[in-house]
Design brief:
The complex is a heterodimer of chains A (about 475) and B (about 150). Chain A has 4 helices and 26 strands. With about 475 residues, chain A is mostly beta strands. In chain A, about 50% of the residues are buried. Chain B is an all-alpha fold. Chain B has a single domain, classed as Orthogonal Bundle (Cytochrome Bc1 Complex, Chain D, domain 2), CATH 1.10.760. Classes of the chains: A mainly beta (about 475), B mainly alpha (about 150). At the A-B interface, loops of A face loops of B.
Amino acid sequence: MRMRFIMSASILAAGLLMTGSVVSLAQEVPKTADQVARPGGKLPGDPKIALVKVADGFLDPVGVASARDGTGRIFVVERQGKIKIVTKDGKVNEKPFLDLTKNSPLGSEVQTGFVEQGLWAVAFHPKFKENGHFFVSYASLPFNGAHIIARYTVDPANPDVVSVEHANKTVKVIMNIPQPYYNHYGGGIQFGPDGNLYIGKGDAGWEGDPLDAGQSKNMLWGKMLRINVDTADDVAYTIPKDNPWAGAYQDRMMTLFGITEEGFSKIHMGARGEIWSYGLRNPYAFHFNKKGDLFIAEVGQNHLEEINWQPASSKGGENYGWKHNMGTNCHPMTGPDDKCPIVGVLPAAEYPHQEPYPGAEKLKDGWGCSVMGLGVADYAGLDGAYLTGDWCSGRVFATGWDGSKWQLQELAQTALQFTAGNNDEDGTVLAVNCNCFYLDDKGAAANPPGALWRIVPADKVPAGAEVAKTKK
Amino acid sequence: MASKMHVSTSKARWLILLAAAAFAQPALADIEFRHALDDSVLDLAPIKGEEITDAVKAFRKDGVNPYSGSADALAAGKTLYEENCQACHLEDGRGGMGPSLVDNVYVNSRANTDVGIFEIIHSGASGAMRSFSERGVTQDQILKIIAYIHSLKK
């Protein structure tokens, strides 16, 4: 007996030594509101970062990606409809990689009239090196603002410039999603570790989700979508069989008896098979980590921003609660003590706006107004934390698991209006900023230019590098 | 606030000042304008087509806004405010997306002084508060905007 006690105590002690803290718990989605991380948290080791400028002069950069093809090129997406290449040594190629502003004799392909419109994202096919396919996501001018996802193919003879001619020859339209209002498109696209293309699809606009898009499974709006794009040339895409509602809308014979209630619950007439998860407002940017977990930066409405985490083991179908809730808040929010049920799953983290509820005293610290996902950081002691940058307050937050719960730590307060980010081929988190906020947008090609940054450990800033100003 | 007397003796800062003094006209170097975020020294070189007016020269010397209370300047300041600031701080300065400019709460430590307000309008603060010099607003115009903001307080 006694022997056994000593044994288990020493095993426990060894466990403590290994984790350096209390016994670790498996990472999980918060089950109660108090488990959701909020500003003021600390990640183990109190990591410190710096933003080092890679290149500048971009007109409203709102997206960035690596082709992961070993060339070290970084592709910066300009809202107006161009993709610029930054070479391995930090030079910006003069000729754009893709130019959708010139691909029609009638002018641009891209609608940029409102600041949330434009070319948002590029995602390279996992086999880009072999097949040259890359995908773009934008608001279309000819289709009156509809959200288009299209595939283009690089000319192997000219890997840095997809000419207008070559673009028009190779283009394949994957999706054309109508858009009733000029805001909340979402727009981010990424290939998942499963090879499927994921699309962040906003609730299609106005405010308060007047179409009830988030909760309606018969609409693509207000969702994360998941599609297979490895299809024959005459098939735009197919629905992966393991999407949560892939078969829910099959016409079938009606059977009323001998079926369990669970069986009935799987019939969703009208549900769109493309849906992976729902109840989202404006998931502009999202990122996978190496394990296949998914982080979604879900842009909130008047009072709260939310960061969702979905484990790699998920089979999809999560309801993130919009428009019943934003994070742990009720929607619509009327005051500090609103009571309402939490619909669906909770976020891993959330942070308030300057006015956390209607009529609240304005906050001086820890606030933002529009969360932009930047990427997953597996360095600088960040241990897989998800980095986000806020479009209004310039704050960089890290959302991470500290071994027993979620933490939201503010890493920096910058002067940058973050618009997007992504992981470079080596895992470094890249970020872009514009000077293009709603209230002072002068037009996609007329705002002061923005820049591309690399997030590095604070003690690894290269000599002579330009570092983003941060509040002391 | 922020006058030369206030300068720390740290060697790095001294070197920056020396460098700044070497390039600026000596008469203009009296007040040290610093960035609201990290206190780095601001570049007050004129933007394209900008003329450094007597009002700006005087302000750089003593931090006193020569346009305070001048009717013409207030009228110009009002127009500039409506064009550039109203969207975020609202027409009466009570604050919307950006903080109130007419109360006694200051997000940035020097925003209770004209020099501090000048620094923020010229070179920006956090996030959505941009550099208006990069957006083509001259330093003379900034002084007129500041005069107008003060007139809103009454």
